[in-house]
Write a structure and sequence with these properties.
The chain is mainly β and 103 residues long. It has one helix at residues 31-43; strands spanning 2-4, 7-21, 27-28, 52-66, 69-70. It has a domain at 2-70. The strands form 2 sheets. It has a 3-stranded antiparallel sheet, covered by helices on one side.
């Protein structure tokens, strides 16, 4: 007997997906891209782009499958179960012609 159906449990993990310049809000997928952004700003005598933040999101990284929880029950008595009601069947065992011939 099934007590609890099988089910899948998603597993999540916080993962970094980008870095953002705190001054202008530009987002980059890697630190090297952000560093290029900062160096370009410095080359233009703009020293405001030196601060950044790492952006995270909760991503599904795995799925744990849980089998159904079941148990067996002892049968203490036998019971007859009627699947189909009883009926009489006519079985043809031969044919008789009006002339008397049989088959």
């Amino acid at each position: 007997m099934v007590d609890k159906e099988a089910w899948d449990e998603p597993v999540y993990e916080w993962r970094a997906y980008a870095v953002r310049c705190r001054y202008c809000g530009a987002e980059y997928e890697s630190m090297s891209e952000l560093e290029n952004h900062m160096m370009d700003a410095i080359d233009n005598d703009d020293y405001n782009h030196g601060s950044y933040e790492v952006l995270y999101r909760n991503e599904q990284v795995d799925t744990i499958h849980h089998e159904a929880e079941t148990h067996e029950e002892d049968i203490k008595e036998k019971r007859w179960v009627e699947d189909t009601a009883a009926y009489d069947e006519t079985v043809i065992t031969g044919y008789t012609c009006s002339c008397g011939a049989t088959k």
